[in-house]
Amino acid sequence: DRTVQQIAAGEVVERPASVVKELVENSLDAGADRISVSIRAGGTESIRVRDDGVGIPRDQLPEAVAEHATSKIGDVDDLAGGVATLGFRGEALHAIGAVSRLTVRSRPRGAEVGAGLTVEGGDAGEVTPVGCPEGTTVEVRDLFFNTPARKKFLATETTETDRVGTVVTQYALANPGVAVSLEVDDRERFATPGDGNLRSAVLSIYGREVAEGMIEVSFDATAADHDTPVDRVHGLVSEPEVNRATREYLATFVNDRYVTVSDLRNAVLSAYGGQLAPERYPFAVLFVELPTEAVDANVHPRKLEVRFDQPEAVQSAVEAAVSDALLEHGI
Ligand code: ADP
Ligand code: MG
């Protein structure tokens, strides 16, 4: 029933940024090397995500937008290690189609023609042949056109745009090997080269000054002489002086998934040990890798929080990794 469908959709599709998150995850799942995100009017007028991934075969298009499409999850254990699993419920496209005008156009690699399908407020049309580049383009127009209450709940265009920017930035940083771009109202915000280098991704997003002033963090437990639950800590952190960040910016990833965890934030902050210049804030992009069994399995994989089995040990390992990096630069 339509109402139930729309309520279920609300679980997945809260705002434009959540649509963008789902679509970008699908593109990554499809093995894309290039993902272009484009939005208009904070994403309420349109959201377009184009990728050069494997594509969706014509006969699978209806299934892709159907309720409970085959999910990519293998078994319950995948859920437990949820931080490493992207798509797992098989309902994102369906949910998005229930509350917007959704068009999916796709041409699988090597296929001669593409195929397209439109879903309007839950009503799926026919699959038609379309000309399109290899890969998949998903376009979401008039988000929440049929759920005015939800539309009213959205913040200003600027705020929704910022949220989309934050999501796309997180994925661009987490995947420096993928060329990710963001266009807002026909103007390019950033485009990463996809060369696999974190510093070039930071450069494209935040500019030369930020990128050049960053120090490399690299800790590998196999080379460490003590026991730690953490396998690897790597990324970039700012120098306390040079950094021009006017507000704290810490992007932390656990097993390549963006998370907001106070243990990690505190670890970074205490590594600086009060050395930050006045009105200067740390800027960090940090990846923490640890065995999935050391991450709390009870935390929902779609949530940004994770819990560690040994939070203190993780915190001190991350703090040590960052302080070592700073120390090497005489900080
Ligand atoms: P899930 O990602 O959990 O499987 P979705 O509703 O997000 O569920 O997507 C449904 C299906 O549509 C995917 O399993 C995939 O087969 C296909 N699909 C969606 N987006 C893409 C894409 N960008 N490239 C290739 N296939 C896609
Ligand atoms: Mg998905």
TrEMBL record:
Signal peptide: none annotated. Residues 202-327 form the DNA mismatch repair protein S5 domain. It comes from the Archaea. Belongs to the DNA mismatch repair MutL/HexB family. This protein is involved in the repair of mismatches in DNA. It is required for dam-dependent methyl-directed DNA mismatch repair. May act as a 'molecular matchmaker', a protein that promotes the formation of a stable complex between two or more DNA-binding proteins in an ATP-dependent manner without itself being part of a final effector complex. This is DNA mismatch repair protein MutL. It comes from Halalkaliarchaeum desulfuricum. The gene is mutL2.
